[in-house]
Amino acid sequence: MPRPATQSIAFGTVRWFFELDACLSLLLDRPDSRLDPEVRALILVGLYQLLHGETPDHAAVSETVEAARALGRPRTAGLVNALLRRFQREREAIVGKAHGEPAARHAHPAWMLQAFEREWPQQWEAIAAAGNGEPPMWLRVNERRVTRDDYRARLLAAGQAAEPCDFAPQALRLGEPCDVTSLPGFGDGDVSVQDAAAQLAPFFVAAGKGMRVLDACAAPGGKACHLLERTRDLAELVALDIDAERAKRIASNLARLGLEATVAVGNAASPGGWWDGRPFDRILLDVPCSGTGVIRRHPDIKLLRRPDDIPRFAAQQAALLGACYGMLAPGGRLVYSSCSILRAENADVVAAFLDRTAAAADVTESARLLVPGRLPWQVAGPGSALPSGAADADGFYYACLEKRA
């Protein structure tokens, strides 16, 4: 099987795991039966193909049975065959019964659905549906080299449809995802891959000529490069990451795009190990987070995240925010962003910081006026959040803080 097809099936099985696993439990005579983990995973793959895949049913069953033999489990081939054929016969009843539980119906863990419903009472079902969808491929055109309209024309000439975005002026959404190497001018730095919501960062940062800018958690470098593409004549941009290998990706992206920045390795929460003491006029702090706004791109988040991860992330985020604010020049601006849509990692962290920091002011509302187009921002507490799937973009949070002179 070609790699793209295999990858699609693997991602799809993870994406729909909570639904598929509930169906499997109903198929087993004893739901607590201990199947070999590899066999269990294989049956889930078969169920995915029968429910959501493009493989014809008869092929999905026969190939899954053959895969059991290929795994060295010939004795389980009969069980795999029986379970999948029973599902074919009783599909409607089994899926209907499984969907009695919200986790199976929305294919997300129960705790996560509860958090979405609590914080996004009007949009939570749409957020869950977005998390189950195939992500679009968004491009960011490097307007130092080519205009968006001209690049779109090049795509169309190459047989690739693309639509512009009304709120991200360098963004194009491809009609069909493709390998980046097939994009015209990718190797020359004409274009990068970046979600439209992430492309809003420069509008909130609002850097200008002569400013010293820090991208505090920069790898792989998309936002740092976008800042440089949009803002000429910065005094310096420092792209920092704690991981040396990830920092190499920043340097690689800068080189491909023909941009210059100071790439540094260090912990943004411990500036003493790398900072030269000169304050920054602008700081972009894209914090490590649960990733609940980008589940459609990383469906394994549904399986890997636990409720107790959220306070752990929040503590890390608070430490990063406090340390980075200490490097901000009087009158400067810090933009706190995340791809989480949970308040505990966003507004609660920023609100607690504002409560204990008299000189810090939330200026998100005025900064948001510089973002073109209309978006369904949620403004509840400091900062603004976008729900996952809004305008076909990822879920994101931005807060702009300024240090009073």
What does this structure look like?
With 405 residues, the protein is an alpha/beta fold. The chain contains 16 helices and twelve strands. Strands 5, 6, 7, 8, 9, 10, 11 and 12 form an eight-stranded mixed beta sheet that branches. The chain has a four-stranded antiparallel beta sheet with strand order 2-3-1-4, with helices on one face. Strand 6 (236-241), helix 12 (244-257) and strand 7 (262-265) form a beta-alpha-beta unit. Helix 3 packs across helix 5, helix 4 (57-70) crosses helix 5 (77-98) and helix 7 packs across helix 8. It is globular, with a radius of gyration of 24 Å. The model has no long low-confidence stretch (mean pLDDT 95).
Q: Gist?
A:
The chain is α/β, with parallel strands linked by helices and 405 residues long. The protein is 42% helix and 15% strand. The chain has 16 helices and 12 strands.
Helix content: 40-55%
The coarse silhouette is globular
Share in β-strands: 5-15%
**Could you tell me the number of beta strands?**
12
Distance between the termini: 62 Å
Radius of gyration: 24 Å
Low-confidence stretches: none
Mean pLDDT: 95
- Count of runs of 4 or more consecutive helical residues: 16
The helix/strand class is alpha/beta
H and E string: HHHHHHHHEHEEEHEHEHEEHHEHEHEE
Q: Please summarize the sheet with the most strands.
A: 8 strands, mixed
What labels describe this entry?
alpha/beta, 405 residues, single chain, 4-stranded antiparallel β-sheet, 8-stranded mixed β-sheet, 16 helices, 12 strands, 42% helix
How is this fold's topology laid out?
Blueprint: H1 3-15, H2 17-27, H3 37-51, H4 57-70, H5 77-98, H6 102-106, H7 110-119, H8 124-131, E1 138-141, H9 148-157, E2 162-164, E3 171-174, E4 191-193, H10 201-205, E5 212-215, H11 222-230, E6 236-241, H12 244-257, E7 262-265, E8 280-286, H13 301-304, H14 309-325, E9 328-338, H15 347-356, E10 360-362, H16 364-368, E11 384-386, E12 396-403
Parallel strand pairs: 5-6, 5-8, 6-7, 8-9
Antiparallel strand pairs: 1-3, 1-4, 2-3, 9-12, 10-12, 11-12
